[in-house]
Amino acid sequence: MEEHVQLTPLERYVTRIGEKFGESAIENAYINELAKHVPTLVIQKEQWKEVARFLKEDESLHFEYLSNLHGIDYEDRMEMYYHFYSYKHRQNLAVKIVLPRENPSVCSVAEIWGGADWSERETYDLLGIHFAGHPNLTRIMLPDDWVGYPLRKDYVEYDEEV
Amino acid sequence: MRELVQQPLTMWNLLLIVLAAIALLLVVLVFVTYAIYFERKVIGWMQLRPGPNRVGPLGLLQTVADVSKLLLKEDTRPKQADRILFALAPVLAYAPAFTVLAVMPFTESLQFADLDIGVLYYVGLSSITVLGVITAGWASNNKYALIGGLRSAAQMISYEVALVMSIVGIVILTGSMNLREIVEAQRDVWNIVPQFLAFLIFIIAAQAELNRSPFDLPEAESELVAGYHVEYSGFRFAMFMLAEYVYMFAMGTMVTVLFLGGWLPIHPALSFIPGIVWFVVKFSLYVFLQFWLRATMPRIRSDQLMSFAWKGLLPLAFLNILLTAGFVSIFA
Amino acid sequence: MLRNQPPTESVISPAPEIRTEEMLLNVGPQHPSTHGVFRLVVKIEGETIKEAVPVMGYLHRGTEKIAENLTYTQIIPYMDRLDYLAAMTNNYVLCHAVETMMGLAIPERADYLRIIAMELNRIASHLVWWGTYLLDIGAMSPFLYAFRDRESILDLLNELCGARMTFNYMRIGGVKWDAPPGWIEKVANFVQYMKKELPNYHKLVSGNEIFIHRLAGIGQYDADTALHYSLSGVMLRCTGIKWDLRRDESYSLYDRFEFEIPTAVEGDCLARYWLRLAEIEQSLRILEQAVQQFPADGEIMGKVPRVIRPPAGETYVRIESPRGEIGVYIASQGKDKPWRLKLRRPSFMNLQILPHLLVGANMANMVAILGSIDIVLGEVDA
């Protein structure tokens, strides 16, 4: 492996995950120039749970810190955006997952990163993305009886008076 | 005053006794009014702010206005509260606070009842107040009030033991439980010198007894909102406040009498100054100390408070008794 | 309200004939020590907390949704209202995100003004924390001392931008107002004053026996737990992780200043108390250098297009706010309004550890632990 010393972090992640889960796990990989050149991976939805655990537990990746997670409504699709940091390797990583617009669902990472718990609840609350396996997926900001998901682009106010 | 009680009970004497009691009540009320005023002023100055200065000259009528507001306010009671206990609690808290004042010798002649067991009378009656506090906590049917009331009960009972034990040394030294005789016995040297350890224990335990900073847990505002009197308003709340400050008055008197030589001057050469002035000066020093502590100290935690009482103060108080008894049996 | 956790076994098993009951205590949303409209449902047995469920959202204004209908400059005032105790860092993080996307160069003078404003605000924020935290602990006076000194900072910031708390000072590409004449000297004077004042804070509180006993060993966790729960700022540094975005992912001109990153290893409330005061010291150091290096003249706005349209794409930037890592994610479609704006609020993330810390704690510690997290409800609820 000596000739691979010059691999960029992004290439390293792609190789490592590719070795473990096969090429199909990564849908896309690129450097996001707009976000301070953060390596960005688009992971396949079905394999996200295993990849997530691998991201945290693998010694050469070791992304033990979840900085942020949220969803985005692109009208034709939903996306999840995760930002990780590895204190061990001092590396940033962004992960994206593309979800269908109808009944978007992705597996929860709350048991891998405890910090994901409330963020996932918030995303569920405001965008209606379902997190499979979340211990307590309830609304967090809005009242439990709220109708609709406000951050969706097609959201209409339930009561115009309010 | 004392002679009055020993004379046969005529209508005239009864009237005098009642009038004297009312006079004392007025004195206490004036004290409470201005203790609150000075507390706010002193703490204000310590905190770089002027304190009350709007109502009346220098804000002197601020407390009067506050009290009038409390008395005129609607008397609210939670729907689920225990009606009788809710009404009884403030009385239970206040009455003993006022009755203990009867045995306090303010000067040689100004004392209402010269009991031979003055110390015991004070200690016994003052412990009734805790019943008022628990009753208030229970009757309010409020969880914060309940926690506050129970904390208070635990605290007051624990510290009462240490408080009483710290007085025992003085009783041994004086050979009397009569408060007037205790003062007389301090002509040569005030008890604060031979009983300094007891003085410290007494001061600390007194703070806890009075529920004042740093032992103001029962009403810990930041966690229990206001503790046992959270549901009280209007004149019932005023009675709790009154009880608290009257206790401060009583405790100040006790400290002055037991440790600071009551009405005695600091040196016989200064005896031209009347005893009552000396009394007031010493008493005020103690009250000032309380305000000072309140502006300085954070609040102790309830479990630490209890272990401090039982593992710290009480053994020290016993040690003090032992030392005093040893000293007395060897030298006297 | 209380779910997910099986009822825990009582530690002290009661005598069989005495029936004991756990009590459900509702703390907040109106409670003096929840620092705003935060609600906590605690299950207590005696004074021991068995379970705590935080309930929030009482101050949720939907900032992220509102922002989707505003131009970037119009969002800035909304950022002020998130963490209203440190609005300057919030201003900065939004501008920084847009500037990163557009690759804008910021004039040096504007960058210095931003740093001075942010560090002054950081001190002000920590002072509020110091005062209110001691108020929670039951000491009354520190609050007023802290507010006196915070007032001088607010006066300075007021002079700079005309507002005391919601500054709306920074713009994409620079700052709105230049420093008025003599302002930099005033900042220098304040730094000297505060340096003398800080030891008095320690004298009044830090050595107090009661205070130390109340905080030492309370609300303790280790570095792994801190990382697991995505804690940041002082909440992370108190476990020994030396991490400060100002130095480790340097932004603005922070690489020009010498300053320490105070850390502690205990991970308890007392460590967090010391760290926040130590951070005031470091902020003063940065200010001192910034005032010295402050350029005599120059522009305060860079070359910015009249309509701000970041290129299509997405960005995520994070900076160090007084409460920890504040981040902004922007998804742009090349329009003058963001397609999606996401705010990573440090108070919200840091608060997640609270239920974990409270289980088994004494009721009286609840206030001490909650206070030591240093939350601002405007930020938790966004």
UniProtKB/TrEMBL annotation, chain A:
Q: Where in the cell is it found?
A: Cell membrane
The answer on whether this UniProt entry bears the keyword Transport reads: yes
Annotated GO CC locations: plasma membrane
Enumerate the HAMAP family for this protein: NDH1_NuoC
This chain's function reads:
NDH-1 shuttles electrons from NADH, via FMN and iron-sulfur (Fe-S) centers, to quinones in the respiratory chain. The immediate electron acceptor for the enzyme in this species is believed to be a menaquinone. Couples the redox reaction to proton translocation (for every two electrons transferred, four hydrogen ions are translocated across the cytoplasmic membrane), and thus conserves the redox energy in a proton gradient.
Q: Which reaction does it catalyse?
A: a quinone + NADH + 5 H(+)(in) = a quinol + NAD(+) + 4 H(+)(out)
Q: Which residues form the NADH:ubiquinone oxidoreductase 30kDa subunit domain?
A: 42-156
Q: Does the keyword Cell membrane apply?
A: yes
Partners and quaternary state?
A: NDH-1 is composed of 14 different subunits. Subunits NuoB, C, D, E, F, and G constitute the peripheral sector of the complex.
What is an example of a Pfam family matching this protein? Complex1_30kDa
Name-wise, this protein is NADH-quinone oxidoreductase subunit C
Task: Cite the EC number.
Answer: 7.1.1.-
**Family statement:** Belongs to the complex I 30 kDa subunit family.
Q: Name one GO molecular function term.
A: NADH dehydrogenase (quinone) (non-electrogenic) activity
Query: What are the UniProt keywords, alphabetically?
Result: Cell membrane, Membrane, NAD, Quinone, Translocase, Transport
State the annotated membrane topology for this chain.
Peripheral membrane protein
From TrEMBL, chain B:
What Pfam family is a match, any one? NADHdh
A biological-process GO annotation: aerobic respiration
Where does the secretion signal sit in this chain?
none
Q: Which UniProt keywords apply?
A: Cell membrane, Membrane, NAD, Quinone, Translocase, Transmembrane, Transmembrane helix, Ubiquinone
Instruction: Enumerate the GO terms in the molecular function aspect.
Output: NADH dehydrogenase activity; oxidoreductase activity, acting on NAD(P)H, quinone or similar compound as acceptor; quinone binding
Membrane topology category: Multi-pass membrane protein
Q: Where in the cell is it found?
A: Cell membrane; Membrane
One Gene Ontology cellular component annotation held by this UniProt entry: plasma membrane
Describe the reaction catalysed, as an equation. Answer: a quinone + NADH + 5 H(+)(in) = a quinol + NAD(+) + 4 H(+)(out)
Any transmembrane segments, and where?
12-35, 84-107, 119-139, 159-177, 189-206, 245-266, 272-293, 313-331
Judging by the UniProt lineage, the source's domain of life is Bacteria
* Presence of keyword Cell membrane: yes
Which EC number(s) does UniProt give?
Answer: 7.1.1.-
Where does this chain mainly localize? membrane
Q: What does this protein do?
A: NDH-1 shuttles electrons from NADH, via FMN and iron-sulfur (Fe-S) centers, to quinones in the respiratory chain. The immediate electron acceptor for the enzyme in this species is believed to be ubiquinone. Couples the redox reaction to proton translocation (for every two electrons transferred, four hydrogen ions are translocated across the cytoplasmic membrane), and thus conserves the redox energy in a proton gradient. This subunit may bind ubiquinone.
Quaternary data: NDH-1 is composed of 14 different subunits. Subunits NuoA, H, J, K, L, M, N constitute the membrane sector of the complex.
Q: Which HAMAP family match?
A: NDH1_NuoH
Family, per entry: Belongs to the complex I subunit 1 family.
- The molecule here is called NADH-quinone oxidoreductase subunit H
Organism (species) = Brevibacillus fulvus
From TrEMBL, chain C:
Identify the Pfam families for this entry: Complex1_49kDa
Q: What is its EC number?
A: 7.1.1.-
Task: Report the residue ranges that make up the NADH-quinone oxidoreductase subunit D domain in this protein.
Answer: 136-381
Single GO cellular component annotation?
plasma membrane
Q: What is its main location?
A: membrane
Q: Which reaction does it catalyse?
A: a quinone + NADH + 5 H(+)(in) = a quinol + NAD(+) + 4 H(+)(out)
Protein topology in the membrane: Peripheral membrane protein
- Which GO terms of the molecular function aspect are on file? NAD binding; NADH dehydrogenase (quinone) (non-electrogenic) activity; quinone binding
- Compartment(s) where it occurs, according to its Swiss-Prot or TrEMBL record: Cell membrane
Do you know which SUPFAM superfamilies this protein is assigned to? HydB/Nqo4-like (SSF56762)
Q: What class of enzyme is it?
A: translocase
Q: Which UniProt keywords apply?
A: Cell membrane, Membrane, NAD, Quinone, Translocase, Transport
Protein function? NDH-1 shuttles electrons from NADH, via FMN and iron-sulfur (Fe-S) centers, to quinones in the respiratory chain. The immediate electron acceptor for the enzyme in this species is believed to be a menaquinone. Couples the redox reaction to proton translocation (for every two electrons transferred, four hydrogen ions are translocated across the cytoplasmic membrane), and thus conserves the redox energy in a proton gradient.
Q: How does it assemble?
A: NDH-1 is composed of 14 different subunits. Subunits NuoB, C, D, E, F, and G constitute the peripheral sector of the complex.
Family, similarity comment? Belongs to the complex I 49 kDa subunit family.
Q: Which PANTHER family match?
A: NADH DEHYDROGENASE [UBIQUINONE] IRON-SULFUR PROTEIN 2, MITOCHONDRIAL, NADH-UBIQUINONE OXIDOREDUCTASE 49 KDA SUBUNIT
Name of the featured protein: NADH-quinone oxidoreductase subunit D
Species: Brevibacillus fulvus
This protein's encoding gene = nuoD
